[in-house]
Amino acid sequence: MSKLSAADILSQLIQFDTVSRRSNLELLGWVETYLETFGVKSRRIYDDTGKKANLIATIGDPTVPGYILSGHVDVVPVDDQDWSFDPFGGEIRDGMVLGRGASDMKGYVACVLAAVPEMTAKPLATPLHIVLSHDEEVGCIGVRTAIAEIAQWETLPKGCFVGEPTDMGVIIGHKAKRAERVVIKGFTAHSSLAPTAVNSVEYAARLTTFISDLGRNLQKNGARDPYFDVPHTTAHVGVSHGGSMVNIVPNHTQIDFEVRAISADNPAELVEQVRAFAKETLEPQMQAVKPECSIHFETLSDTPGLDTCPDADIVATVKALSQKNNHSKVAFGTEAGLFAEVHIPTVVVGPGNIDRAHKPDEFIKVSELEGCSLFLSNLIAQCV
Ligand SMILES: [Zn+2]
Fold it and tell me: Which residues form a coiled coil (predicted)?
């Protein structure tokens, strides 16, 4: 394999259907072969199934603090979406690369890989670490094993760039997100005998009201972070399933709710308030009728927020590299908070626009890839 443009590499990457539920090993195999062409060794960190892995490659001296270039290679599904082209065709047309993941976020990964010949052309005084992850789109799951390993390195990287699509804007923060599933087990009976039963839909409704009141209170009285369009923490119920017939008292209801928190609020504490209401107020009432009734909580995902100090070195560095002097925060979650959690200063900066993500006819402009490549060239020049 010789030198390829970011657009050519992206076209290749798109052709590997790496929807989160599938294996990403074929894509990683392609990346490994590509890296080997330039003498770069890489390692895989497998998940428990052995069907997916993260990939880490270091260019330069690993005993010197360097920068991480991080991106996920899984994508969201295309099921039930109306595409006007093949989402996994990787077609390049009219100055755009077309397909699932073009913006979110194989485009950035392609730019990083396209820059590898430049990274290896001259010795790097500051090393660069390429970190590719799996299962980001299902709760930032995959990257955690890679970060756990990096956190054990003798020399911690001095910064990390997560290339989610920000139109190359400098993003220093996003909210933390915690999602919970609640299963309410009531007691069934014919509806004519309703008082002898425990209606799971009714208890779920009371819990739902508690969660929406919590959200309303945060909106009215909660802490503020003016960087966000919705400048406060939110809480909402997104799923509610229960009951089958109007003449049967339902005994099984499930609700899924989430909290998206600014850094002033702790999502675990907010979830604990919900749990306490369920366990201390609702469950005793249910069990007074039938002791076997219960309310059970399960955490579906828990991703820390990002709140990098605007004065941090990494922010100044990224502004200089991208020739921007402003920074902002974004509504969507990323893996960045997980890097920050192990004390690696992190910013989100990448090509393309989040508005195209997760939708049909996803694309990225070749000019956007070129903008990112310029950013990486500037970074490499600084690292030489
Ligand atoms: Zn993404």
Answer: none
Q: What angle do CA 356, 361, 362 make, to 5 degrees?
A: 40
The fold for domain 176-303 equals Alpha-Beta Plaits (3.30.70)
User: 350 with 91: CB under 8 angstroms?
Assistant: no
Pick the CATH number of 6-174+305-383 from 3.40.630.10, 3.40.47.10, 3.40.50.620, 3.40.50.80: 3.40.630.10
Residue 144 to residue 157: CA distance in whole angstroms:
16
User: Could you report the per-residue pLDDT of 296-330, keeping only the tens digit for each?
Assistant: 999 999 999 999 999 999 999 999 999 999 999 99
CA of 137 to the centre of ligand 1 (A): 7
What is the tens place of the pLDDT at every residue in 238-264? 999 999 999 999 999 999 999 999 999
Q: 311, 302, 221: which is closest to 266 by C-alpha? A: 302
Ligand 1: centre distance to CA 136 (Å) = 7
Q: How remote is the CA of residue 132 from the centroid of ligand 1, in Å?
A: 12
| CA 131 to ligand 1 centroid distance, Å | 14
Closest CA to 136 of 162, 99, 175, 161: 162
Distance 346 CA to ligand 1 centre (A): 16
The alpha carbon of 305 and the centre of ligand 1 are apart by a number of angstroms equal to 15
Is the pLDDT assigned to residue 218 strictly greater than 70?
A: yes
Domain boundaries, the chain: 6-174+305-383, 176-303
139 Cα: distance to centroid of ligand 1 (angstroms): 11
Distance (angstroms) between ligand 1 centre and the Cα of 219 equals 27
